[in-house]
Amino acid sequence: MSTPNKNGMPAWVPRAIVLAVWTVTAFAITGWLFLQLQSLLMLLLLSLFLALALEPAVNWLHRHRWPRGLATGAVLLAALASVVTFLSVLGSMLLGQVLSLVNQLPDMVRGLLAWTNTTFGTDFAPTNLVAGLSDASGLVEQYAQGLAENAWGAGTALLVLLFNGLTVALFTFYLTADGPRFRRTICSVLPPRTQREVLRAWEIAISKTGGYIYSRALLAAISTATHYGALLVLEIPYPFALALWVGVLSQFIPTVGTYIGGLLPVLVALLVGPWPALWMLIFITLYQQFENYVLQPRITARTLDMHPAVAFGSVLAGAAILGAPGALLALPAGASLQAFLSVYIKRYEVAEHPLLEANAAEDGDPEAGEQPRRKKPQGKAAGAKPPDGRENAPEPGGRSDPDEESWGD
Asked: Which residues cross the membrane (predicted)?
């Protein structure tokens, strides 16, 4: 027991009060610093994501006798050149097609209402609807003119965007070029066993993030080209803008992205006629099935093997936490975490049960690598014995690790 002081208070009470005050103060200062540095932390997180995505290409060049700094600069410049080329060459075309679509929207709606009245014997008056669309178009033009007149605000926003872009590029360059040195510095303060686990996690993150970028880009290109061909065959206006919309949106919103992005082409096709809209809807549905069951499993087999529902939930969670950057980082972060945890989760052979038959027969067992199941011997002649729960147990210390070959024992 502690000895009370002259006032009858235990000796530990003043120390506890001081410790509580210091703890609250430290938490308050940490929270204030986090709020003040939130923008910088977001830029660092984006830089880390880009560094992980670029490192596979940098490592490939480095293995082919390129200096690491030169390889990083070449890959980073190639990525920046691709973005600038896309925005300069395709951005103006996309903007022009969208503005033309907005200008012609009242005429398209008038034609749709005329077809509806002729086909179904209705008597809808297009005056109010077309007037509302014209007012909306006028509001859009006024808003664009206001942005153009506010040169100071536009210039400030452009400078902030340029500064943030240069900051991300600088951090990305150093995190990629000095990646081995950075990891060596971190491992130097960790014990050997922890170093092994940290490097394993880092390797998984590089593989999953790089695979995410390359697989998404390839799937977006295939989707854009396929939908562009379908729009051309159906003679739907603005095929490139609509195909690019579907191709990009379908890859950043898993599973339902094609349907959400395909809503705009169906609406535009509906303004042309009901049959093009119906054929466009059928094509989008069939392509989504083809992508889910043929393209995506082959392209993302070793990069993002996540269930579609889990992927969609990860995107929603990332967007709720960090906004648009969180939605971008959710899939590679979730896939990396899933792959890292799968190394340490011990799995057992699943017991026979009727509830497992349908999934095993249709989809196989992805956790067990779709291995064929052994049939139990039937009857007394086969010498069947009831399972005792031990004969199917895994060997001590055994685990299924797809990356074990690269790390040894």
From this structure: 12-34, 40-61, 73-95, 151-175, 267-290, 310-331
